[in-house]
Design brief:
This protein is an alpha+beta fold. The protein is built from 5 helices and 10 strands, in the order E-H-E-E-H-E-E-E-H-E-E-E-H-H-E. Helix 3 packs across helix 4. The two termini are 27 Å apart.
């Protein structure tokens, strides 16, 4: 028996998120089925990040155990033959038997993409949020600077999340503009439920001129979800990368 790690990229448009659901296909269920077709084993993958319905990924991570004799680095080629075109394995390798992607210290990077112009462009319709309301990137970047570092992000956490602590560290948060495309790129040691999408929704409020950048301080201090901006739609969000730094205690 060996443990294999996968780097998984996917377009989350037609899936009900990562985790298996009763009401539709998920990334996890598709991977499990592809592995069954390939190995004949009933395999349940373990994912690093349980992305929501409609969220995309360039580099999510999953592991699974198998008795198959195939070398770990060959699964990337074999599995892609059993997966739909909107899910593609980017890399595979054998890892130690005690490696679990959710019980490691990690650095995660997400991007939230916004198309900001008078009319939408069809090519961006699946992975980018569109708004015709003009957004000021300098105002958004000024607000972003208040969010870097270690803070209690309770105001940026969707109601009902079950976590030990709402304290997280953001290492880097940039608002970039290239033509009509705005990208909010955020790197941190972990993110609360809907945290990146709530940050995106809040920054858009500020970029539109509705709020001032300094309101971020008040939102953080309030520790109240009602004080932050709306949760931006899922389709603009992509999990870009997960870097593993070592074992840690179990984190919900």
């Amino acid at each position: 028996m060996k443990r294999v790690k996968l780097i998984v990229a996917y377009d989350g448009t037609r899936y009900r998120g990562w985790q298996i659901q009763k009401n539709g296909e998920t990334i996890e269920s598709m991977l499990n089925h592809a592995l069954w077709e390939l190995t004949g084993e009933e395999i349940h993958v373990m994912g690093a990040s349980r992305t929501d319905s409609g969220v995309h990924a360039m580099g999510n991570v999953a592991v699974f155990d198998t008795a198959a004799r195939m070398p770990g680095d060959k699964f990337v080629y074999a599995l892609n033959q059993h997966l739909p075109e909107d899910i593609r394995i980017q890399d595979s390798c054998e890892v130690p038997a005690d490696f679990h992607p959710r019980y490691q210290k990690t650095v995660k990077t997400y991007e939230y993409r916004i198309l900001n112009r008078t009319f939408p462009l069809p090519a961006y319709r699946l992975n980018t949020y569109f708004t015709y309301v003009p957004l000021d990137v300098e105002r958004m970047q000024a607000a972003a600077s208040y969010l870097t570092g270690e803070h209690d992000f309770q105001s940026f956490c969707a109601a009902g999340a079950q976590v030990k602590t709402t304290i997280r560290t953001i290492y880097d948060l940039q608002v970039l503009k290239e033509g009509d495309l705005l990208t909010i790129r955020i790197t941190g040691n972990g993110f609360l439920y809907n945290m990146v999408r709530i940050i995106a929704g809040t920054l858009m409020k500020i970029g539109s001129g509705e709020w001032e950048a300094e309101v971020i301080q008040q939102i953080l201090e309030a520790r109240d979800r009602r004080k932050a901006g709306p949760t931006a739609p899922a389709k603009g969000l992509t999990l870009m990368e997960i870097i593993f730094q070592g074992k840690t205690d179990k984190i919900p």
